[in-house]
């Protein structure tokens, strides 16, 4: 049976290895409320090692962002949605404005995040309802141009069908 152990229970070489293990991360989730959500787990003689993301990022921030290959990015571009679906894990925090009364990041902020990430293959642009942002095609193009993504997924509630169709046509141009 696997048992959870803490990093402090590891030898110094195992601890260093666990802390550097973030180079094997497969994806990072960005959103307005939580810029990076991630967890690391590895194996040690049949035991699970749980290392909080905050520990790994504080250990060696430059190493993390320069030495791992990002495969997929899940990017929440808005907290707005006209529905409150029971299955939605954002339902309780929808339509929350920041201190300046804004519902999401600006294109300049998104461009800076994109520029910091390098190339990766897949992206999920989500929210709330991503098609409520009139600049969703611009956001997709920023990541396509700067990060060379090959697959963009845009989950939607399909409420604004005409807007969705016109936006997807823009993205495909």
UniProtKB/TrEMBL annotation:
Domain Radical SAM core: 77-164
InterPro entries: Aldolase_TIM (IPR013785), rSAM (IPR007197), rSAM_sf (IPR058240)
UniProt keyword 4Fe-4S present: yes
Assigned keywords, A-Z: 4Fe-4S, Iron, Iron-sulfur, Metal-binding, S-adenosyl-L-methionine
GO molecular function, one term: metal ion binding
Protein name: Radical SAM core domain-containing protein
């Amino acid at each position: 049976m696997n048992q959870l152990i803490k990093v402090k229970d590891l030898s110094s070489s195992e601890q260093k290895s666990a802390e550097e293990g973030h180079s094997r991360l497969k994806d990072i989730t960005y959103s307005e409320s939580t810029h990076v959500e991630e967890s690391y787990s590895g194996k040690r003689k049949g035991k699970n090692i749980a290392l909080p993301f905050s520990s790994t990022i504080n250990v060696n921030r430059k190493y993390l962002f320069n030495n791992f290959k990002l495969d997929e990015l899940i990017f929440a571009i808005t907290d707005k949605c006209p529905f409150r679906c029971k299955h939605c894990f954002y339902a309780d925090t929808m339509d929350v404005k920041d201190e300046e009364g804004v519902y999401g990041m600006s294109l300049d902020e998104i461009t800076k995040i994109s520029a910091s990430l390098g190339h990766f293959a897949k992206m999920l642009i989500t929210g709330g309802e991503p098609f409520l942002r009139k600049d969703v095609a611009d956001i997709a193009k920023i990541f396509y141009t700067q990060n060379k993504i090959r697959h963009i997924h845009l989950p939607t509630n399909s409420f604004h069908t005409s807007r969705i169709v016109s936006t997807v046509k823009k993205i495909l141009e």
